[in-house]
Amino acid sequence: MELLPRSPGEFGSARYWDRFFRQRGQRPFEWYGAFPELCPVLHKYVRPRDKVLVVGCGNSELSEQMYDVGMCEDIVNIDISDAVIRQMQERSGSTRPKMSYLLMDMLQMDFPDAHFQVVLDKGTLDALLTDEEEATLAKVDQMFAEISRVLQVGGRYLCVSLAQAHVLKKAVDYFSQEGWIVRVHQVASSGDKQQFVLPVFVYVMTKFRKIPGSAPQILEICPEEQDKPMRMESVERLVAAVKDRQHYALLCSQISKTPCREQVSLDLCDKESGKPRYTLHVVDSPSVKPSRDNHFAIFIIPQGRETEWLFGTEEGRRQLAASAGFGRLVTVALHREQHYEGMAGIQTELSGKVMELAPPGLPARQQVPFLSVGGDIGVRTVRHCDTSPLSGEYVIEDVKGDGTCYFRRLIFLRNRNVVQSEARLLAPTPLPGQKKRRKDKKKSSPAEPPGAIDKSYLCCEHHKAMVAGLCLLGGPDALPGELAVLVVGLGGGSLPLFVHDYFSQAHVAVVEIDPSMLEVATRWFGFSQGDRMKVHVSDGLDYVAKLSAEAPAQFDAIMFDVDSKDLTVGMSCPPPAFVEKPFLQKVKTILKPEGVFVLNLVCRDTRLKESVLATLRDVFPLLYARRIEGEVNEILFCQPSPKGRCDPAELRTRARALEGALRQPGRPWDSSYVLADMLQAVHIL
């Protein structure tokens, strides 16, 4: 028995539907959307005294179920198939006397104007709008015009649909231009196995009198039946929001059946603002042998730690999942713009949603554990938000690290997963006679605010390596005397501050193109200028070019730690112009013959990186490289003369001598910072 049409156009043919319902017999045919799923939405828009028209009723049980539960009794059902109308009249005529079935074409209805309060369409528009041919679109316009004619002002057209993009856009375009309010509901799934993977939607178009002129469109979406509607600014945005939910449903269907070969990433957005609230990564560990208790777990990343290697990289998350011992781990990152009510609140909020990401084979009613570091959600305090004309929006935030330490961070929101600058905060010192305040265990925030910046601590591994490279300036037993150092790129100022404070005879010139960053470093990161520290607000390219023409060979060390504002290039540090050969030759010109040029290179494009290294080798005869473990950063130490060549063992000897000179009594030193270790993996290119 062949029920499918030979062409999409047959969906509009009475002959096809007569044949379809004769062959199918008495069995009800539901395209999609069972009554228990649709009922919460229908209850909002169908009142018991409403006169309801159902177009393209078929032999669906929807009208009968609405009648039987008392939702509404004055229901008129129409269809172009004589066979199905006779079938439905026989089925409901005696048991539902107030409901009628009429043979009628919805494109040419016999009803008077403004006759109904509700028009209900379950799959009829989807069946009619199978393509975007001119003849099809003309039929759809005729359908909409007839629905508009028979509806009263204030009446509702309820259209149950799978919301293919062309169907949704056509409906929303037509009725919004007529001045109607358009709201799209996503129908909540019952959890049973569905005929369709895609979610079902109900378009609710409410008729208003058309106001002459350009009245604002009112477009809304309700992600689930209990949610408040969210206003959409355009038809395109509404269609995109529906498409996002369809993609999510497809994703959930896919990963519920098969393990993820690659990590899956998605954002869950705040219902009020529409901004991302949680970022989820689904990580499967094929090596974990499944048992009843290790199928699935959720890991809440503490606030402010989402950029750490373990949580912020694919390899880190893979190791986290394997060490946690679960077949599937969903990591959850919390966004700084959002407020969270502790671990219990997050668990309540996410429990239903994360179960949609459960792996295949999860036992029924299996409890899924929520994990974290130390059992809490961490602490993040945003200290300052602003916008720079050059760097865009940025935030200064204090976060709790691993253990009891707090850190201050600068984040550029155009690249929010990268910490631009970071400094450790000293524990606050009580005033004389002041008792230490006890912690309130019920509060998730720190009992006391963090103190001043710890200038003795370099948070960034690449900064530690850059400082260690200064051992190339001295012999194996000597610390260089007076040093002239140029640092291009200020950020929070940690690097130039450390050089200034620990190399007591160093004169440091810093070049920073963005005046906002000088204000940030001074106000929030403890940076200050003095006799041996000067900041020049200038483009580094122009500053170096000017010096090369005026005063060559004046710096012992030149350090580049400058980010690129162009995120389309596969190199985020430095900007490409800083590693072009003519400019590098100018850098070499202002560097003393025995000096060292230290470059922080962050390049994900392999070909581009090879090109940069080749250019550096052309300009600087001696080139050392130090890769930062777990990061993309690679620190390059470039010298203008091959005479100072050191093998790795000699480099580490020099680093130990330099560290011994820097570690003076009464001067704080981070015991974990061993200069020789920072040069352990250095190799000559």
TrEMBL record:
Keyword Methyltransferase: yes
Domain Methyltransferase: 50-171
GO biological process, one term: methylation
Entry GO terms, CC: cytoplasm
Annotated stretches, region: Disordered: 425-450
Alphabetical list of Pfam families matching this protein: Methyltransf_31, Spermine_synth
Similarity comment: family membership: Belongs to the methyltransferase superfamily.
Name recorded for this polypeptide: eEF1A lysine and N-terminal methyltransferase
Annotated source species: Ptilonorhynchus violaceus
Organism phylogeny: Eukaryota, Metazoa, Chordata, Craniata, Vertebrata
